[in-house]
Amino acid sequence: MPVETPPPFKAFGELRRLVRRPDFEEHCELCGVAVAPEHEHLVEPGKRRLVCACQACAILFSGQAAQRYKRVPARVLSLHGFRLTDAQWESLLVPINMAFFFSNSATGRVTAIYPSPAGATESLLPPESWDPMVAENPELASMEPDVEALLVNRLGAARGFPQHQYFLLPIDQCFKVVGLVRSNWHGLSGGEELWRALGQYFAALSARATVAGVRAHA
Questions:
Q1: Which of 68, 88, 95, 214 has the most beta carbons within 10 angstroms of its beta carbon?
Q2: pTM, whole model, 2 decimals?
Q3: Which residues sit opposite 109 in a β-bridge?
Q4: pLDDT tens, 32-76?
Q5: How far, in Å, CA of 101 to CA of 175, rounded?
Q6: Alpha helical stretches, state H, the chain
């Protein structure tokens, strides 16, 4: 069952402030040097924490196992032809049509997180729900634990999105979506400001993404 949790990564508050205040100055949490608004992040899996980092510090944790931190990669893949039926989506027990999924090395399970006006809500997926998705969509097998995620956008035409969208992307980008929702939500349905912000986010993400070779539907 989904459970309301504290922010899944302790740096979520910092990401939310970046969404609200583009002039907010961040610093590398390892060496203290100032970093640009678009900067590197590290994940500290043991503490479920995102850490802001300069490029020099981030490089120290590239491709090394058994480290305290893991560098968040930069690749963004648009998974065209992604196979996920409505029945499969419903079996994931996500109450809204947008969520992201990542493999949590601390638990050995895949975690689903979806945004809400109050923040992030998460639940653990049973293997019988996730494993068939990987079998149908081979690109998911390359998803790096803790630092990459599958972002699913099934909001549809009613919210200005012409089709379902699926991305394999850095996990910090997923928490940026959580920040957008929490910072821009107004009223009962979110409001025009929220849907405009999400539209701009997904447009920019699509422009940045590389199309992955996921098999098309038969």
A1: 214
A2: 0.86
A3: 104
A4: 999 998 899 999 988 888 999 999 999 998 876 667 899 999 999
A5: 11
A6: 12-20, 55-59, 86-91, 127-136, 171-184, 192-208
